């Protein structure tokens, strides 16, 4: 355990389901780590779309998790529970958390932590875990991509979209993205996308098929679902894989199963938050082995949009919901 921990802390809670104003600053007890846990003094916390869903009452935290929003943090270890050997008080870490990030202190399973190299700011480190864990698991482990494959990512300038683009390029993929404006398409190309398609100006299915000589892409990472699902399947190649990670366009879809069978396509998807601590620990180990060296040598850095004070979390949510951001939004807790 750490010494001289305060008894109380400032946190941002969801007072009631609703709009950004339902986020309210409160004073609450500083949690104490149990076996296998560490307590992080939070420097920065990432803001993610699931935080908005939770605020609206549509994404309850898993059983046993903090009811406070916030799925990723970076900071220093302030206290350590029993059975934690690989970490020490004062270590700079970032971590994926099941909740509780919008606070001065946050409990984290020790196995979900990744070390922050000196070359990486804590602000940038807080912008990595949620998108990195999500993209690595869904694109590389569920989508089975390999060097030379083609990947289509919807929402190319979002936190997920920018991470998928950068990881894709680092691992030898050709990356297609969709965006809602010419300015966003230009930024997506700057970030590394090989092809950026303005979905408001042209049919992404036809554009993808033209750019691939009629073949289609090997994998689609989709956050839309709904009526995008049959269009995604048309944009996929024979043996292509569709991976869905959110349902912004609706949870139900109608697809032509005969075409799916003829083209031997695969539909899969996942949500990460409710997975077990053991699963997330294994995923953290995979990322530490395969991706973290690229963070340590500077090859991989998050695309940063804006930071807000913890007390301005409602404005951070408004900024995300306006849809004009490029990359990641973070909250500054202990700067």
Automatic annotation (TrEMBL):
Q: Does the keyword Transmembrane apply?
A: no
What UniProt keywords apply to this chain's record, in alphabetical order?
NADP, Oxidoreductase
Its protein name is Zinc-binding dehydrogenase
Q: What is the lineage of its organism?
A: Bacteria, Pseudomonadati, Pseudomonadota, Alphaproteobacteria, Sphingomonadales
Picking any one GO molecular function of the record gives:
oxidoreductase activity, acting on NAD(P)H
Indicate yes or no for the key word NADP: yes
Report the domain of life of the source organism: Bacteria
Q: Where is the Enoyl reductase (ER) domain?
A: 18-331
Cited SMART domains: PKS_ER
């Amino acid at each position: 355990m750490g010494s001289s921990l305060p008894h109380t802390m400032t946190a941002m809670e969801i007072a009631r389901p609703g709009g950004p104003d339902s986020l309210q600053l409160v004073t609450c007890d500083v949690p104490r780590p149990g076996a296998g846990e560490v307590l992080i003094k939070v420097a920065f916390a990432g803001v993610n779309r699931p935080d908005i869903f939770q605020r609206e009452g549509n994404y309850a935290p898993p059983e046993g998790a903090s009811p406070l929003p916030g799925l990723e943090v970076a900071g220093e270890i302030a206290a350590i529970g029993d059975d934690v050997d690989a970490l020490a008080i004062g270590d700079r870490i970032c971590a994926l958390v099941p909740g509780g990030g919008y606070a001065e202190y946050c409990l984290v399973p020790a196995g979900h932590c990744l070390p922050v190299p000196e070359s990486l700011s804590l602000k940038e480190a807080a912008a990595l875990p949620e998108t990195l864990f999500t993209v690595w698991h869904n694109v590389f482990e569920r989508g089975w991509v390999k060097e030379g494959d083609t990947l289509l990512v919807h929402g190319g300038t979002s936190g997920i979209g920018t991470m998928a683009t950068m990881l894709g390029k680092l691992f030898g993929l050709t990356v297609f993205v969709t965006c809602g404006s010419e300015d966003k398409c230009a930024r997506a190309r700057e970030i590394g996308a090989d092809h950026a398609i303005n979905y408001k100006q042209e049919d992404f299915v036809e554009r993808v098929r033209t750019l691939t000589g009629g073949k289609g892409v090997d994998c689609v990472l989709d956050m839309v679902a709904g009526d995008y699902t049959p269009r995604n399947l048309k944009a996929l190649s024979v043996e292509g894989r569709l991976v869905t990670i959110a349902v912004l366009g609706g949870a139900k879809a109608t697809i032509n199963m005969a075409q799916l069978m003829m083209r031997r396509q695969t539909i899969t998807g996942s949500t990460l938050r409710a997975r077990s601590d053991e699963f997330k620990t294994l995923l953290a180990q995979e990322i530490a082995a395969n991706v973290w060296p690229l963070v340590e040598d500077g090859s991989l850095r998050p695309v940063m949009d804006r930071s807000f004070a913890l007390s301005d979390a409602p404005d951070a949510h408004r900024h995300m919901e306006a849809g004009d951001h490029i990359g990641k939004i973070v909250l500054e807790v202990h700067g």
